[in-house]
Design a protein that fits this description.
4-stranded mixed sheet; 9 helices; alpha/beta; 27% strand; 381 residues; 8-stranded parallel sheet; 23 strands
C-alpha cells in the first residue's frame, strides 16, 4: 500500500475526540492522513469495513510469546513467530518481556530482540527480572534471581542497544531503590513487580522514580486493609500506572472493576502476559527455564504451585473488559491502546488520529475480531 491512498468507512470509529458514528479514515501509505465524522466526501474510493467498530491497534507491554514460540530463546525465528501471531489478534505494537534466567541467557535474548526492534518487528523490550523477590517469584526461576545491581542492568542495556524500555524490580531488596533510581535516570519505565514490599516501601520506590506496577495483584503482597502493599499504594497514587491481566483467571472481574474505579482507564494497562502456549492448546510448554502445563485457559507450573503467564490475546482482553468487567468501549480502548502507548512513549501509535501510524482493529457488534491493519497493510488472518 506504500504511496497509495485509501478511505475506510465504518459505523463507529473510536478516536481521541470520541466515537464517530459513522466515520471515515483516510490512509496514505503507512499513515492516517485524516479522520472525519459522517460519510466520506463524494467521489472518494471508499472501502466499507465489514464490522461495527474500528479501534486503534492494541499495544501489549507485557508478553512472553505465542504460537508455540517464546521471546527468551534468543532465536530470531521464535520471536518473529510470536510477534506475528499476536499481530493477527490485533496487537500491532509489542514489547517483548524477558523472564528471569542466567544473566548470559538473558543478555543473548535481549541482543536478539534488539535486532527485531531495530527492524520494527517489536517496539522494545521489558526486563521482568532477575532482580525480584523470591517470596513473590510466581513462575520465575528462584535459582536465577539476583540482588539488584546497576552494573548488571547496564550490561543488559548495552545488549539491548537502546531497545530496553522497561525494567521490573522488587524495591524492598537490598539495593532495590538504587536500581530504581538507576533505571529511571536511564530513561526506562521503572516498574515494581514480583515484590513483597509494604505500602511504605512502595511509596519510597515511587519517590525514587518508579512509575509503574507489573501485573497488579499478581506477584505482589496481597491487598489488606491494615497493609495495602504495592497494590493499595499504587492505586492511590495519581502518577502510577498499573498492568492488569484481564483473562478472568489471574484477576477477578470485580477486582478489575475496583481498580478501574480507583485509578481510571488513564492509569490502567490491559496486558496479556501471554506465553508460548497462546494460540496453541493444552500441553507442556516452557517459560524461560520453567516447565508449564496448560489446560484450557489456565497455564500453571507443572507442580501447580503458581500460575505461569497466560494464553490470553489482546482481542479477548478487550472484549472481556466490555462484556465481563462492564467498561465502556472508550475505556477499553484507553486500557489496550492509548494508555500503554503513552506509558512507553510510543508517539506514533495508540490512537486513530491524523499523523499516527495506520494501526487499526476492526470488530463486529459482539466485539469479535474481523480484521487487523498494521502500518497501512491488512494482516492476513
Amino acid at each position: 500500500m506504500a504511496g497509495s491512498t485509501t478511505v475506510l468507512a465504518a459505523p463507529r470509529i473510536v478516536t481521541p475526540a470520541g466515537v464517530l458514528a459513522p466515520g471515515w479514515i483516510r490512509i496514505a501509505g503507512e499513515r492516517i492522513e485524516a479522520v472525519g465524522t459522517g460519510e466520506p466526501a463524494a467521489g472518494s474510493a471508499v472501502q466499507q469495513l465489514d464490522g461495527a467498530w474500528v479501534v486503534p491497534g492494541f499495544v501489549d507491554v507485557h508478553v512472553h510469546g505465542g504460537a508455540g514460540a517464546a521471546y527468551t530463546t534468543a532465536r530470531v525465528e521464535d520471536a518473529r513467530r510470536a510477534a506475528a501471531f499476536h499481530r493477527t489478534r490485533g496487537t500491532t505494537s509489542t514489547i517483548a518481556s524477558v523472564v528471569t534466567a542466567p544473566l548470559d541467557e538473558m543478555a543473548a535474548a535481549v541482543t536478539t530482540l534488539a535486532g527485531l526492534a531495530a527492524e520494527g518487528v517489536l517496539e522494545g523490550i521489558h526486563l521482568e527480572g532477575p532482580w525480584l523477590n523470591p517470596t513473590r517469584r510466581g513462575a520465575q526461576s528462584e535459582r536465577d534471581m539476583r540482588a539488584p545491581d546497576p552494573a548488571e542492568l547496564e550490561r543488559l542495556l548495552a545488549a539491548g542497544d537502546g531497545a530496553v524500555r522497561m525494567v521490573t524490580v522488587a524495591p524492598e531488596l537490598p539495593g532495590g531503590l538504587d536500581l530504581v533510581r538507576h533505571a529511571a535516570a536511564a530513561g526506562l519505565v521503572a516498574a515494581i513487580g514480583h515484590s513483597d514490599a509494604t505500602a511504605a516501601q512502595a511509596e519510597e520506590a515511587f519517590a525514587a522514580g518508579a512509575t509503574h506496577v507489573t501485573h497488579l495483584f499478581n506477584g505482589l503482597r496481597p491487598l489488606h486493609h491494615r497493609e495495602p502493599g504495592v497494590a493499595g499504594a499504587a492505586l492511590a497514587h495519581p502518577a502510577v500506572t498499573c498492568e492488569l491481566i484481564c483473562d478472568g483467571v489471574h484477576v477477578h472481574d470485580g477486582a478489575v472493576r475496583l481498580a478501574a474505579r480507583a485509578a481510571g482507564a488513564g492509569r490502567l494497562l490491559a496486558i496479556t502476559d501471554a506465553m508460548a502456549a497462546a494460540g496453541m492448546g493444552d500441553g507442556t510448554y516452557r517459560l524461560g527455564p520453567m516447565t508449564v502445563m496448560v489446560r484450557g485457559d489456565v497455564a500453571e507450573l507443572e507442580d501447580g504451585s503458581s500460575l505461569a503467564g497466560s494464553v490470553l490475546t489482546m482481542d479477548r482482553a478487550f472484549a472481556r473488559l466490555v462484556h465481563d468487567v462492564g467498561l465502556p468501549v472508550e475505556e477499553a480502548v484507553a486500557m489496550t491502546a492509548s494508555t500503554p502507548a503513552r506509558v512507553l512513549g510510543l508517539r506514533e501509535v495508540g490512537a486513530i488520529a491524523s499523523g499516527r501510524r495506520a494501526d487499526l482493529v476492526v470488530l463486529d457488534e459482539d466485539l469479535e475480531l474481523r480484521a487487523v491493519m498494521a502500518a497501512g497493510e491488512w494482516v492476513p488472518q
